[in-house]
Records
---
Amino acid sequence: MTLLKLINTVLLSVLLLMLIWLLYLRYKRKKVAKILTSHDFNEDLRRTQIIDLREVDEFKAEHILGARNIPFSQFKLRYKELRMDTPIRLYGEGMALPTRAAIQLYKAGYRDIAILKGGYSEWTGKTKKAEHK
């Protein structure tokens, strides 16, 4: 029975730490970026930098019209390509990677950051799809 109690304690601790981590990310996301619905994200896109954080193959298959691909796996090396004086709109498959990217941008001095609520699957605006030959 002692081993079972130990396993339960470890699992409970892991779950508690995960919950704390998710709450922390949610708090940080609200502090560093605006969360925008698809409709709000779509407003005035021409005056923003739209960054797709998904990997290259996902981006090539389909992406928001006018978006630039900086995969999250390369983000730490490439975020300096972004202009500080132009609003930044981030999206990915969900909210986790855009949140982490927004936190990194905020720490680097960027301030006008927004994230697409729900990720790319919630996008209702114009897209560009791969051309099939």
---
Amino acid sequence: MSKYELVIYWSNEDNAFIVEVPELPGCMADGATYQEAVANAERVIGEWVETAMNLGRSIPEPRGRLLYA
């Protein structure tokens, strides 16, 4: 399980749950169910990181949850 923030929402246009990974530019996934969307996001995160490593690009560290005072 990755430690990157996931933004998950329902898209009427796509008729699917959409998952965005804000810390990894362009990293998105979808799924017919919430669970499927999260599982697909985990796979895509792994592929994103692997591709970045192969290209010699930096990989952002997960920031974790931001706390507000």
---
Amino acid sequence: MDGSIFYYLGGALVLAALVLSWIGIRGKGGFPASNRSMAAVLALFGLLVIATSAYAVANAQEEQEHREEELAEEQADAAQAEEGAEETEKPAGGEKPPPPPAEENTFELTSPEDGSLVFEPDSLQTTPGNLTIAYTNPSAVPHNVAVEDVEQQLLGGSETITESDVELQVELVPGEFVFFCTVPGHREAGMEGTITVE
């Protein structure tokens, strides 16, 4: 509805009230002239009041409906934007993105050629993730390499070898670990080392 109609009706109502007041004050005892003119004036006022009120109610309802439509559109736009953001985060096919690959570190470990019961080096420092120990035993004395945590739980061990190479892979979390030779008597003789993961 055109909002200017409300102002026209309201203005007419105010103008009629002013005119009626002026006539009433000027006319004093002779106003209204007759019961018929009084009824006509009251009818006119009633009509203006009803028309103004009806228009105000209708306009308010229309305004409310318009606002509800705007809110519905805003909510639909927000939901659509949220769906679009989720789709850009998902890889093609709707699957979850793969976890980042664990960091892999490789360390070379050896023993002396004369068969001494030691590892060189006897300490390793690395970051969390997969650790590969590439162990070389150049001597004829059998050796291997194993890794355990501070609670002496074995995390992995290699084959026992002589004059050859072997690899051991373990996954480590931050903390302290021990690598050692499991051949009887070798660890007790000092064939062990530490791994620090941080």
---
Amino acid sequence: MIKLDYNEYNDHELIMLISENNDDARNIIYQKYHYIIDIIFKKYYKRALALSIEPSDLFQEALLGFTDSINRYHEDCDASFATFATICVDRRIKTALRNAQTIKNKTISDTVSLEYEYDDYLTLKDLIKDESSKDPLDEISDQEYIKELNKEIIDNLSKNEVEVYQLMKENYSYQEIANILGKEPKQIDNTIQRIKNKVKGIINK
């Protein structure tokens, strides 16, 4: 069977072909965005080791998250597939880390200090803190207001800014965002500054 040139297809078309059980399209998507899995794997590698998660298991969770992103992505998504896949993989791994934390915490004596240093200077406080605390909107206590504010922020951002904003909320650095979106770090840095100014304007109005 002659393989088609899938470089002629965009991501939405490839996803459609995958939904029709086209293995070639699935392989193309994986090869095209494998670097995203690598970025996220490296991001959580040390924390996974501190929680006794095998690297192979961590990578498997990343693959499952990537598969989930393929299954859930659709034409109406505001974000590009690269951004959507990043968020899906990131959240899949965070769930695995939280589950590992729960198991590990059950074996730790109440007398162990939260400041006790584990592998690579990672403290217990680092391991058990809520990942959501990294969101800059966490200081706002009213969850409904947060939801409305987040919607207003997104409504005031360009499509490119929305993608960067979504990755910022997942605690990615400007360099990592640049790698994920295939852009120059300076471009992302400038975009982040615009986003911060817009957010400040919305919050302070």
